[in-house]
Amino acid sequence: MSYPVELKYTDDHEWVLLDGDVATVGITWHAQDSLGDIVFAQLPEVGEDFESGDVCAELESVKAVSDVFAPLAGQITEVNEELDGAEESINQDPYGDGWMFKIRLTDLSAVGELMDSTAYQKLIGDDDAAS
User: Fold this and answer.
1) Domains and CATH numbers, the chain
2) For the whole prediction, is pTM greater than 0.70?
3) DSSP string covering 80-127, please?
4) CB 15 within 8 A of CB 40
5) For residue range 108-127, what is the model confidence (pLDDT) as tens digits?
């Protein structure tokens, strides 16, 4: 398990990588591990607007169907179309090829409300995870 220090995290188990006012979003190692093998991803549409905490995507695994929440308010600018038919990328590389969507933020200051790697690891009870 790893929780890269350059990312920010939500208590809903999404990660955020900020590049200017655009955030790349995916689910954490902990989330994909809890879900098990992901077999389908319903991603948002480019141009859709979301408020922080809105359900914006859905993941179906062999265990359950889980919602993915917008970590911050904004508009979807890109979705990872490579996941269509290759949803296992979310399990295999959640911080790389398994990214889900990009969102242009309406309020950059809200990024400060997200957790860093250490705080996220404490949230999930994994204080000793490598970062």
Assistant:
1) 8-107 (2.40.50.100)
2) yes
3) -GGGTT-THHHHH-TTTTT--EEEEES-GGGGGGSB-HHHHHHHTT-T
4) no
5) 999 999 999 999 999 999 76
